Amino acid sequence: MNTIKLGDIAPNFTAQSSEGEINFHDWLGSNWGILFSHPADYTPVCTTELGTAAKYKGEFDKRDVKVVALSVDGIRSHNGWIKDINETQNTTVNFPIIADEDKKVATLYDMIHPNSDDKMTVRSVFIIGPDKKVKLMIIYPASTGRNFDELLRVIDSLQLTAYHKVATPANWNNGDDCVIIPSVANEEIPVLFPKGYTEVKPYLRMTPQPNLK
Ligand code: BEZ
User: Looking at residue 108, what is its pLDDT?
Assistant: First the structure.
């Protein structure tokens, strides 16, 4: 078992996919990336998830995020399933699906949780930064399909907080006020946050989202 922690370099691998062989780090290049696993091909919730991910391509592209899915089935199965996804979800799958019949990648990323199911992967999401480090992990059970609006929301937060000394509060959405991180002294605020700030408590200082005009 391989336990990945936030801030670790995302383990590299080479694998076959529905779009040919992928060396994960080379494929990511200097982009952000999402690697997400699916319990199995030809399953209903996964079908809706992959269709939704395809429809969100424009949103992922805007954020320089490359998307790759994984399921522990083979290429032939993936290719047949992709036809079904395109047909039933009224879209075109526009990202690779890794074929992981030997569970090499699933094991590397600890995507099989035997007390949940000893054969299928859970629904893992790994968001990886341009530095190849793991920025966020979310794990859902097979029975709960993912919310792709939530994935865009967390990408917006990750990309904002990577470049500005802010954090995003509960239920934050792009455009909402942000929290100034505790390591910023009040004296630094006029330069860092020229739009101003509100001190609710000395440890809770809010400022308009800094990367918006
Ligand atoms: C699904 O993707 O629909 C699914 C897979 C495994 C268990 C339950 C649902």
Answer: 96
Span from the CA of 167 to the centroid of ligand 1 (angstroms): 34
The residues lining ligand 1, judged by C-beta closer than 6 Å to any ligand atom, are 39, 43-46, 142-143
| Distance from residue 186's CA to the centre of ligand 1 (Å) | 50
Q: Which two tokens stand for residue 108?
A: 């590397």
Considering the entire predicted model, what is its pTM?
0.95
Distance CA 135, CA 152 (A): 14
Complete domains list, the chain, with CATH? 14-145 (3.40.30.10), 164-207 (3.30.1020.10)
Alpha helical stretches, state H, the chain: 24-28, 44-55, 57-62, 75-89, 104-108, 148-163, 189-192
Say whether 46 is catalytic: yes
58 Cα: distance to centroid of ligand 1 (angstroms): 26
What are the per-10-residue average pLDDT scores of the chain (213 residues)? 89 98 98 97 97 98 98 97 98 98 96 90 96 97 96 98 98 98 97 97 98 88
